[in-house]
Structure formats: structure tokens, C-alpha cells
Design brief:
The chain is mainly β and 421 residues long. Among the domains are: 26-220, no CATH class; 229-321, Immunoglobulins (Immunoglobulin-like, Sandwich). It has helices at residues 75-92, 381-415, and strands spanning 31-42, 45-48, 50-60, 64-67, 70-72, 98-99, 108-109, 112-115, 121-123, 126-130, 139-143, 147-149, 154-158, 166-170, 174-176, 181-188, 192-194, 199-206, 211-214, 217-220, 229-235, 240-241, 246-254, 263-268, 271-277, 283-288, 294-302, 311-312, 316-321, 325-329, 334-338, 343-347, 350-354, 365-370, 373-378. The strands form six sheets. It has a 17-stranded parallel beta sheet that branches. Strands 22, 24, 25, 27, 28 and 29 form a six-stranded mixed beta sheet that branches. The model is unreliable at 1-17 and 339-380 (pLDDT under 50).
């Protein structure tokens, strides 16, 4: 009897998921900032690349430095907007799509196309994009709604990846938090708000809305892999004294060598103290003129550059002791000196008591007490007479007592003599 055995063979070898191709930007690629309804700036902002707006030609605000060409509703800006629309639609249609958590902070993602269950993305902390050694690795993030990054957040790229291959397709508006480091090209349907102190290695391209800037650095993305950095912070005096300046020093080093450039922002908790440029040795210093008494959590955030990823130091606790103070009370004559190390109290007490007029006279007496020493100052003849009378009374009393005791003693002596017969 023959047995028939069915053998199921695979239809063919498994096919790996194809990596996405870069999004083509056309003429929009030469722009670092492009808006539909104008560009508004506050504070010293540097744009490395072209800046344009169309159809609204408005570019307002002092302090804007553009290392490129400004295009106000001209043919170049109009064509760049048309190419931005094409790029936006291309990014929105990429597949296959992987769904990840809305919060991108502290995630490590490989090349691919990503969306979230909410249609929005947020970044708190650091998002790491790992190119796994492929300089052509592409990352595309699709949002039906908004993109919001937190203060001091980072988008870092490692293992040969570059900012020119990262794309953010935003269905409404994007907001980048203060002193954050962002990488990639934002393609927003509406507006883009870049808050204070942001560093962008990429582009801010808004189709129908405005772009708002505030003391930022935006550099058109290049295809140069950024190096990983590490940041430290140290204090010139810890503990220090309230009201006295303290200098903080931050050192930024890069993995694999090289000296990072850019700037470092120093923070007291979530409050920025100030920003200082990195020197040629990778060191930035900032002097805080005054810190209040108490404990302060000090950190330093390196904002990154096109060739160096941003990084934030671990915190140090700056202890600020209260300054020495002296207070004097006019009513008590008490002077108190306080400092963080010791408390010294000096007390001077003054009490004056005046006795009324003595019997038969108009004189008086005064007693002055200072600390633990007492002195008697007597004035007037009545005081002298009273003192003499009191002394005489004591002497007379003693004499009478002695006289009263003498007969008894003499009688006892007589009784003790032997009798003669």
C-alpha cells in the first residue's frame, strides 16, 4: 500500500521591507525657512540658507540675519511653495507605515515611515534615529495633525544617518519648544512656530501659514553625518553665597574626535540662566550674577550643529548660602548678625530705676544696670543720713544683745565656783 504525503513548499523567498526613498524637495531644497503668510522674528536669529514667503511678502522683526537670499512673494518663492506642496503630498503617501507611540522621546527608531495612533507626535527628552551604518537611511514621520517638541528636547541621528534624509509631514501646525535641537525638514500644511533658542538642522517649510522665529539658529540640512557628543557642567564655587556671582563651565566633547561648535545654554531647573558660545576648545562659560539662597539644579544643554548632535549634561546641585545680615532694634538696643555658618548675638540692656523722695527730703537715688554689673550712685544728704541711721541702729542692736547676754554668763560662772566650808 502506498502512502501519499503532501508537502507544502513556500511560494518563494521572503522579501524584506524596502527602505523608503528620500522625499524630493525641488527648488524648496535651497530654503531654510519658507512661509505662506509671512515670517516674523524676535531677537537675534540666524538663518543659514534662503528665506522666503509666498503669497504674503511680509518679513518683519529686527535681529534677523540671513546667510542666503530673502525672497518676498517673487517667482522663486512661488515655485518653492509649489515644490513644497509636491513634497508634502509625497511624504504623506509613503508606505508601508509603522505605528509607534505618540511620544517619541526616549525612543530609538530605525529607518522607515512612522505614524501614531493619535495622528500627532510629541518629543520630550531625546529621540534617537539609528541609520545602522547606512548614510542613505530615510526617516519619514506622518502626522494628520500637530507636531510639538518640549523644551530642551533633542532629535539625534547616529550611525552615519543625516538630517537631509529626515522628513516631518505635519497635517496642521508644528511648535518647537525652547532651547530644543531639531533635525530634519518640516513640511507643515499650516504654520510653524520656532520658540526661543531653538537649533534646527533641516528646514522649516510652511505651506499655508506663517513661520515665527525667536532667537534661533536654522541651518539648511546638509548630508553630513553628525557626531555624538557629551556635555558636562561645573561650578566655580559650591557652596556659594547669595548675591555673589557664580561662574558655570560646560565642556562638550565629541565621540571619535573633533571639536563641537555652537552654543550652550545653562539652566536653573527649567529656567534658562543664559547662553554662551563654545570656544575653540569646546568649553563655554557663563557667570550668573546672583542666585537666591537655597538649592539649585544646574544643567547645561549643548544645542548641536549640523555636524554634531546636541546633548544635555547631568545636573549638579548648587548650594547657595544666605548672605550675612545685621539687624538692630531701636527699642531694645539688640544687634543681631546672621550668616549661613554662624549666628552671633550681642545684647546691651539698659535699665534705670529712680527711687522716690525719701521721708523728710527731696533727694533721690538712681540704679543703673549694664549687663551683669551694678553700681549704686547716691546723691543728696537724706540718703547719707538714712545710711548713717541704719548703720547706727545695727551697732546699737548688737551692743544691747551683748549686754543682755553678759549677766547670764556671769551668773553661770558664779554657780560653778567651789564653795568653802
Amino acid at each position: 500500500m502506498m502512502m501519499l504525503v503532501a508537502v507544502v513548499l513556500p511560494a518563494g523567498p521572503a522579501v524584506a521591507q524596502q527602505a523608503p526613498a528620500p522625499v524630493q524637495l525641488g527648488t524648496a531644497g535651497s530654503f531654510a525657512v519658507l512661509a505662506g503668510q509671512g515670517v516674523t522674528n524676535t531677537g537675534p536669529t540666524t538663518v543659514n540658507g534662503n528665506l522666503g514667503t509666498s503669497p504674503n511678502p511680509s518679513v518683519t522683526g529686527a535681529g534677523l540675519t540671513v546667510n542666503g537670499t530673502i525672497h518676498r512673494a517673487d517667482a522663486v518663492a512661488a515655485q518653492a511653495q509649489a515644490d513644497t506642496t509636491i513634497a508634502y503630498n509625497s511624504a504623506a503617501g509613503r508606505t508601508p507605515v509603522t505605528t509607534v507611540a505618540t511620544e517619541l522621546g526616549n525612543q530609538n527608531l530605525k529607518a522607515g515611515v512612522y505614524t501614531s495612533p493619535t495622528g500627532t507626535f510629541e518629543i520630550t527628552g531625546t529621540l534617537t534615529l539609528d541609520a545602522e551604518g547606512d548614510p542613505n537611511a530615510v526617516f519619514i514621520f506622518q502626522m494628520a495633525s500637530s507636531l510639538v517638541t518640549a523644551s530642551r528636547s533633542n532629535v539625534n541621528i547616529i550611525n552615519a544617518g543625516t538630517s537631509c534624509n529626515v522628513f516631518w509631514q505635519v497635517g496642521s501646525s508644528a511648535t518647537l519648544g525652547t532651547f530644543s535641537t531639531f533635525r530634519g525638514t518640516i513640511l507643515a500644511l499650516a504654520s510653524i512656530t520656532v520658540t526661543t533658542g531653538v537649533t534646527i538642522d533641516g528646514r522649516a517649510l510652511a505651506r499655508n501659514g506663517a513661520v515665527t522665529l525667536d532667537t534661533d539658529t536654522i541651518t539648511r540640512a546638509t548630508c553630513t553625518p553628525p557626531a555624538t557628543t557629551a556635555t558636562t557642567v561645573a561650578s566655580s564655587a559650591n557652596p556659594s553665597v547669595a548675591g555673589r556671582p557664580v561662574t558655570f563651565t560646560s565642556t562638550v566633547t565629541a565621540a571619535g574626535g573633533g571639536t563641537p561648535s555652537g552654543s550652550v545654554t545653562f539652566f536653573d531647573g527649567d529656567t534658562p540662566l543664559g547662553t554662551a558660545p563654545l570656544g575653540s576648545n569646546g568649553v563655554a562659560t557663563f557667570t550668573a550674577p546672583s542666585l537666591s539662597a537655597g538649592r539649585h539644579a544646574i544643567t547645561a544643554a549643548y544645542l548641536g550643529s549640523p555636524t554634531f548632535n546636541g546633548s544635555t549634561s547631568t545636573g549638579i546641585t548648587q548650594v547657595v548660602n544666605p548672605t550675612a545680615t545685621t539687624t538692630t532694634s531701636a527699642s531694645t538696643g539688640t544687634s543681631t548678625t546672621r550668616s549661613s555658618q554662624a549666628t552671633t548675638t550681642t545684647v546691651a540692656r539698659s535699665t534705670t530705676t529712680t527711687a522716690g523722695a525719701a521721708k523728710g527730703g527731696g533727694g533721690g537715688s538712681s540704679t543703673t544696670t549694664t549687663g551683669s554689673r551694678t553700681s549704686l550712685a547716691s546723691t543728696g544728704s537724706d540718703a547719707i543720713r538714712l545710711f548713717a541711721a541704719a548703720l547706727l541702729a545695727i551697732v546699737l542692736g548688737a551692743t544691747m544683745l551683748v549686754g543682755a547676754q553678759r549677766p547670764k554668763r556671769d551668773a553661770r560662772f558664779r554657780n560653778d565656783r567651789p564653795r568653802r566650808h
